[in-house]
Amino acid sequence: MTMNASRRHFLGSAAAATALFSMRPAAAAPVLKVPEIDRLEIRIVIDSGHELYLDKTEHPLVKVERSGIGLVGNGRSLQAIDSQWGLSLHLKSTRDGVVRQQLLDFGSTPDVMLNNFKVLGLDAAQLDGLILSHGHGDHYGGLIGFLEAYRANLRPNIPLVVGGEDNFCFQLQKGPDGQPKQFTVLDRADLQRLSVNWSTAEKPRLIGDHAFSTGAVPRTTFEKVQANTLVEYGQHDGAGCDAGHFSAAELKGNLESNQHWHEHATCFHLRGRGLVMISSCGHGGMVNAVRQAQKVSGIQKVHALIGGFHLYPAQASYVTEVAQAVKALQPDLVLPMHCSGTNFVAAAHELMPDQLITSTTGNRLTLGV
């Protein structure tokens, strides 16, 4: 089945999608044989805000280390951790004593990315790979600047896994006059110039030997993409995405509300605990992404849901519905970040107080403790 045919298949009707959501995932052979890891440390390099003091620093299933200001130099001066609208996570996994490190997303701008990477004491030479979740500037905006600053330190053959073709599309936003204006684009020429080998995760796949990608997330539940940028399918000025990769319906009118067809989630199987799913924005829906991770791995137990849930623009009633659906998944931990929105945090606090962990830029979260 082609990508477009597959997409039409899993979009279906609203009624069918709701019915699918109410069913438990059917038992089926997993798509991938995913590895088990023993431990996962997540360092929040960039999030949309940071605080020195937050609640719930003690939890039996996660070690939470708070950090709001980093001390650098000779001990007589402070260099602050910065925050911005965006996300970047340093992932350090351990399996049978073998450690792997991945950098997932890169915030909006190189200055904040580079500042925080330095202040947090991270080492580019130790990175095994780079991951881009989707084609929004607040997730890849710091990538090229990071590569320019650290390319000599990075491994010569370091891989970059991107969601898919639409990660390279031109992104546009409406200006004050209501007219769309070019926002940003990830240019493949920059990756070629910096000798970075990239590959896509349009289909489920392993990422290195510790993690796996959901691939493109089917839209099978009531969840819907919330307002975000416009996208231009096509190329000009040497950049953009291959229009031939998309259906005629997607190409009609050229400028479309971005559906993030190729956004993927990065996942781990934590030994004895279950799935850890990191959704950098989750435009296609958190429950949809979990269902896909379960199908891909064959693992039904959800240990932790982490990252941006892209609910900040949503109506409060819809946010509550999503929070109830997340609760029904029975996760052990829910750690919203970035674009999740205060309404979701409030709903999760009401519905899942024992599972909710709040976090901020600079924090380190360790699972498998």
Automatic annotation (TrEMBL):
Q: Can you name one GO molecular function term for this protein?
A: transferase activity
* Species annotation: Roseiterribacter gracilis
Q: Report what the protein is called.
A: MBL fold metallo-hydrolase
Q: Which UniProt keywords apply?
A: Signal
Which residues are the signal sequence here?
1-28
Q: Tell me which Pfam families the record gives.
A: Lactamase_B
Identify the residues that the record assigns to the Metallo-beta-lactamase domain, covering every copy: 105-156
Q: Can the keyword Mitochondrion be found in this entry's annotation?
A: no
Q: What is the organism lineage in this UniProt record?
A: Bacteria, Pseudomonadati, Pseudomonadota, Alphaproteobacteria, Rhodospirillales
Tell me the InterPro entries matching this sequence.
Answer: DHPS-like_MBL-fold, Metallo-B-lactamas, Metallo-beta-lactamase_dom, RibonucZ/Hydroxyglut_hydro, TAT_signal
